[in-house]
Amino acid sequence: MKLSQNGWVVIAGLGPGNEALVTQEVRDAIGEATDIVGYIPYVKRIAPREGLTLHATDNRVEVDRATHALEMAAEGKRVVVVSSGDPGVFAMASAVFEALENNAESKPEWLDLEIRVLPGITAMLAAAAAIGAPLGHDFAAINLSDNLKPWSLIEKRLQLVGEAGLAMAFYNPRSKSRPHQFARALEILREACGADTLITFARDVTKPGQELLTVPLKDATPEMADMRTVVIVGNRDTRRVGNYVYTPRYAAEG
Ligand code: SAH
Questions:
Q1: Is the CB–ligand 1 distance for residue 124 below 6 Å?
Q2: What percent of the chain has pLDDT over 90?
Q3: Alpha-helix residue ranges (DSSP H) falling in the chain
Q4: Would residue 1 count as lying in a domain?
Q5: Are 83 and 173 part of one and the same domain?
Q6: In terms of Cα–Cα distance, which of 29, 34, 3, 4 is closest to 14?
Q7: What is the rounded end-to-end Cα distance, in angstroms, of the chain?
Q8: Would you say the CB of residue 123 lies under 6 angstroms from ligand 1?
Q9: Cβ of 146: how many Cβ atoms within 10 Å?
């Protein structure tokens, strides 16, 4: 990909952790960047070099970070905003467009900046591949954090998606600040999907120390998940074959 010499913003996915899973176009963009913006653990993955400024922030307000990236690009800098996994999955790409929209009247010139989203391998796909093919049929990806939406909406979606017979992948499943919520999520899932449905806890996928655990929902406990875990719940047809877990590509009428 040839990038222009004017300022630009690239929102790049670094994949789930293993450096071999960073795409070549993301490497190229980082190689051409003057500035890297992102949450501390993601920026740590970028090798420092002359001419590259690393802006690692602990700030959880993603739109502020995105606004900073746009400001720098407007000054002519080549800015890469890094996310883990894919930048469009519960990550920075939406935040950049939100910042663009918020400033559309005061900074209309930002609308002409070159902004590109470079995809990465999202956690659920790396986790699915690590255990077999649990997302081989229809599925939904759900963020279990109630930072940006009410918990009541999460409960409603779990219920309806479970009843619809879709497999599910959960991001941000369980944080210390809301330990009871994931227990409640498991309760809803047992009811909506059936207690024998398989659930997989995939922790630190593709990183050293990767952990994979698959149990039926009836044996799942909240402690099996933390914020470094992506959780995959199968549909009623999801099954084991040997050491693998897979979901057939067909489904009977619901
Ligand atoms: N944009 C990221 C998701 C950010 S939300 C992506 O596409 O993967 C952060 C959540 O992603 C974590 O709480 C966890 O649920 C999941 N996650 C990210 N990397 C992971 C990994 N290597 N192993 C397991 N889960 C991971």
A1: no
A2: 91
A3: 24-32, 40-43, 62-74, 92-102, 123-131, 151-164, 179-193
A4: no
A5: no
A6: 29
A7: 45
A8: yes
A9: 17
3-state secondary structure of 171: strand
**Which range marks the domain in which residue 91 is found?**
8-121
pTM exceeds 0.90, yes or no: yes
**Shared domain check, 93 and 168:** no
Q: Is the CB of 228 under 6 A from ligand 1?
A: yes
Question: Look-up: residue for tokens 């070549």?
Answer: 24
Distance 174 CA to ligand 1 centre (A): 12
Pairing between β-strand 198-203 and β-strand 139-143 as defined by DSSP bridges:
unpaired
C-beta of residue 122 within 8 angstroms of C-beta of residue 93: no
User: Does residue 251 belong to any structural domain of this protein?
Assistant: no
Q: Note whether 117 and 139 are same-domain residues.
A: no
pLDDT at 4 over 60: no
**Using CA atoms in the order 99, 101, 102, 105, what is the torsion angle rounded to 10 degrees?**
130
Q: State whether the beta carbon of 90 lies less than 6 angstroms from ligand 1.
A: yes
CATH of the domain at 148: 3.30.950.10
Specify the ligand 1 atom closest to the Cα of 16: 22
Specify the ligand 1 atom closest to the Cα of 170.
Answer: 15
28-43 average pLDDT score: 97
Q: Rounded to 5 degrees, what are φ and ψ at 76? A: 100, 5
For ligand 1, say whether the CB of 119 is within 6 Å of any of its atoms: no
